[in-house]
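#onboarding

Welcome to the new folks! Below is a worked example of what a typical request in this channel looks like: someone posts a single protein sequence, and someone else replies with the predicted structure as tokens. Don't worry about understanding the tokens yet, we'll cover that in week two.

Example request:
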Amino acid sequence: MLSTFHGLETARRAMMTQQYALHTVGHNIANANTPGYTRQRVNFAQTEPYPSSGMNSPRIPGHLGTGVKAGSVQRVREAFLDVQYRNESNKVGYWDARYNALMKMEDILNEPSENGLNHQIDLFWRSFQDLAGSSDDSGARSVVRERGRFIAESFNYMHDSLSEIRNDYKSEIEVTEKEVNALLRQIDNVNEQIRKVEPHGYVTNDLYDEQDRLIDQLSRIVNIKVEREQSGGKPSEVAEGAVTVYLVNENGQAYTKPVLNDAGEQATGDDGEPLFEPIKLVDGTGAQSYLKMKINFDDTNKAVTGYSFMNQVNDEETDVAYAIDDLHTDMPRGEMKALIEAYGYETTVGGETQIVGTYPDMLAEIDLMAYKFATEINNIHKLGFTLGTESEAATNGDDFFDLGGLTGPAGAAKAIKIDAAIEASRNNIAAAGVNLDALTSGARESYETLMSASPRDYEALHALLGNNDNFIEGMPKAYAGSGTNALELANMKDIIMEFSSGNSGTISSYYQSVIGDMAVEAQESARMADSSLSLRDSVEFRRQSVSNVSADEEFTLMIQFQHAYNAAARNITMVDEMLDRIINNMGIVGR
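Example response:
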């Protein structure tokens, strides 16, 4: 038999359920501006109808509804959009960091401009041309010396500035490494809280939001894939579970490591094939602790030598869980990869260990250009003679630039400076060419042959001019008004030099090619960063349209639930009046 108070219980359930919904609306409104918050909704469900099936069930025309209940409170979120967002965020992290590195480099090189190295070199050639017309003019000699000093200081500035930014990138890598480890630790802690609560049937929406917020941040730095792990016990049907975070490559494939047997050897499957397991940065099941990122540096050569993830116990590293074998090809994409590429890393090329990267490569190019430039200037300068005075005869020219005794390009841009002799006296600039009439016939023939050769044998030329036996006694080796060697130095701008295997050109054309390559890379990075950012923002807009709190929508729901609540309350009043009629007004006739 149906209970007399059935209507009261049905209405009570309606009031309580609408109240839950109103509380959830209030929670959404309160967190409308909370970063990472996902709006929530109450899933309404009908309560069990009356009567239940059984032999003794009352015979009534059909099941009678017993009201409504709040089945669960669930986040409104689309997992597919999260995957898309994190993929695009990872690309943005890489290309944005790479673009920033190249922009800093462009600011230092400052080309093309009047203050750039290329313009300073052009002025250097012009100063030699001016000196060729008046080689005994002290003003023209001073200009040559100052132009040379500007070039040396430009090389010094570029080397020091690029090196300083490169060192800054080491600090940024270390900070980013700590950020990754902090994010992994926080994700692991959130997982632990979720695993403790979900088995009791609760849905930890706010913990899920924190979890997703942390994963979004991590995805920008390294490439990851996320899988949900179901909790034990009796979790709710809408419980999302803890997350397992995998390290993946650009193709979305998880990095793997060999599965070891009890003997410490690689295990094999039933088919005899070796077994591998994916790298779990965070284990959602709690079977193992999170892995810590470890970046190893060679402070002597200023390069990253290792990129690994470490097992740890109580935040203390124990052993290497996984190490990237080849930094050149295997680094996971993301901001960290761009930072390491900017700073420089060790790789093996043709069996030799080399340091490559955005800044190491540019420093090597600047060093090579400084070394080739200074060496060629010095070689030509030694073919000339200094400006003689009444008390001192002209002598063979020496180095124009001092490279600090370097025998190779490494460090040349930092070391280059004007030679001490020229700093001491501008008369030591060897502008005058050799007096051909002062050479013996054999020496003159050898000199002309060596000068016309390409490339020139400067050692032989220097030896020839440095041997007094090759000169006719009593004749001046050079004349004070001669500027033929200054003209040779000015014409160096057209000399084709080999900078590396298959890479030759004039000093200006080579520098322009270096600047051009950098500009193309910067333009490509900017294009890719803008494209990735546009895609990420598009996905984020769609994600927010699903998950974000809309004040208008929440106000509409508030009114809707409020009316339902009021209606349920009116229903209780109606049932109360019915009961009052039965209790107080029935069966009183004839009293």
